[in-house]
Write a structure and sequence with these properties.
Distance between the termini: 98 Å
Number of helices: 16
Largest sheet: none
Radius of gyration: 33 Å
Structural class: mainly alpha
Low-confidence stretches: 1-29, 53-62
Mean pLDDT: 83
Number of strands: 0
Helix content: over 70%
Strand content: under 5%
Shape: globular
Length: 409
């Protein structure tokens, strides 16, 4: 007997849902291509969001790591400078215990927790001889370190240093001329004054000679500085040859550099000039970062490259001229310190400039301590020590960079 299918049976069969043969993959296959493309686009977008989130997390971790390394570097150098200051003030021909050095400083500010020096003339030796010398080393080291960092940023070359634009050789010409002629129109400040003025003047001369058509180029500045340095070296040689024996010795020892005989009056003259120069270049930190991208990109980003270069060179001349006016020529501080710190904390000038100041101060404090204590009853030229130590150390840095990058480029 044949059974006929009614409309109600057909409806019930439809309400029963899909048959076992209608698997999910067949249902997906039956979807329109537009629906599949939409879902694939959503999955791609979700994958990109996750990838971007991962990249941002990695960048944030790297930024935190860099900030932590920078903070640790600052802390280590600050603590080392404080310890080195106490050690340098304590040791010498007259040994003063560490607690008595700290007690003398505290007593000066009205805190009487510790006793001052127990030996006779201990306070006089600290406050009239050692502390002014240490203060001068800190100020000069900070100035040279910052000047070196600025020069490397302006020239875009980690081998640049303040002497590139002739400021040190110009200051030496002024000092040599003053010693040879025996000028004393400013008393004991005559030679430092002429060294300061000639250092500034030489830098301006290099800039003017290198400027053409309202613009300066890095290569032209460097080559002009080389030529001016050669002329200045010839003048110094002539002054040394023409000077009598006593004046010749003064010229030679001035060029070697020393903090012997530093006084608070000299520190008071040098410090404001160096502070002004440091503040000026710190205000230029962001522009120096943009300049490191190249001159054309910096101009497209709104940086007046010529004005930046001019202001930085004036600031460097101010820093170096005021630093070497009383201490003489001190080499390698402005070259080694910024180069090393750039490897540790990175190239951002907002952190690199103050770090270079702290590193330069620490280096010259150590060098001055070595100059006073290496040979008994002798005061070695500090410029000689910085060159003896800085030269091999910088060569090691170059070898290390070459082994990592595979070449000198």
């Amino acid at each position: 007997m044949t059974r006929t299918t009614s409309a109600d049976d057909t409806a019930r069969a439809g309400d029963a849902g899909p048959s076992p043969h209608d698997r999910p993959d067949r249902i997906v296959a039956q979807q329109s291509p537009q629906t599949q493309a939409t879902r694939q686009s959503q999955r791609d977008r979700a994958a990109r969001i996750h990838a971007n989130a991962a990249d941002l997390a990695l960048a944030a971790n790297a930024s935190r790591s860099g900030m932590g390394r920078t903070a640790a570097t600052f802390l280590i150098m600050a603590v080392a400078l404080l310890i080195m200051t106490i050690v340098s003030a304590s040791l010498g021909q007259l040994v003063i215990p560490f607690d008595q050095v700290i007690g003398s400083v505290l007593n000066k500010i009205g805190i009487h927790w510790l006793n001052g020096p127990s030996r006779s003339f201990g306070n006089e030796a600290l406050w009239n001889v050692r502390f002014p010398r240490i203060a001068m080393a800190i100020v000069v080291g900070a100035a040279l370190g910052v000047a070196g960092a600025v020069m490397q940023g302006v020239f875009g070359n980690p081998l640049a240093e303040p002497g590139t634009v002739g400021v040190s050789s110009g200051a030496a010409v002024g000092a040599s001329c003053s010693i040879l002629m025996g000028w004393t129109f400013l008393g004991s400040f005559t030679t430092p004054f002429l060294a300061f003025v000639c250092g500034l003047g030489t830098t301006m001369l290099v800039y003017v000679l290198a400027r053409r058509g309202g613009r300066t180029e890095v290569v032209t500045l460097i080559l002009t500085g080389v030529a001016v340095n050669a002329i200045a070296g010839a003048l110094i040689a002539f002054f040394t040859f023409a000077a009598p024996t006593s004046a010749r010795d003064q010229i030679v020892f001035w060029q070697m550099g020393s903090f012997n005989g530093s006084r608070w009056q000299q520190v008071a003259l040098v410090t404001p000039l160096c502070v002004v120069g440091m503040i000026v270049v710190q205000c230029m930190a962001r522009r120096l970062d943009l300049l490191s991208l190249g001159e054309k990109p910096a101009r497209h980003l709104g940086v007046n490259v010529e004005r930046l270069r001019f202001v930085c060179m004036i600031a460097v001349a101010l820093l170096v001229s005021s630093a070497v006016a009383f201490s003489g020529i001190i080499s390698f501080v402005g070259l080694v310190v910024p180069h090393l710190l750039r490897m540790i904390i990175g190239p951002r000038h907002r952190a690199l400039l103050p770090a270079s100041a702290l590193g330069g101060a620490l280096l010259l404090t150590i060098a001055d301590f070595a100059a006073r204590t290496t040979i008994a009853f002798a005061d070695l030229p500090i410029g000689m020590l910085t060159s003896l130590v800085g030269g091999p150390f910088f060569f090691w840095l170059l070898r290390r960079s070459r082994s990592k990058s595979g070449g000198w480029a």
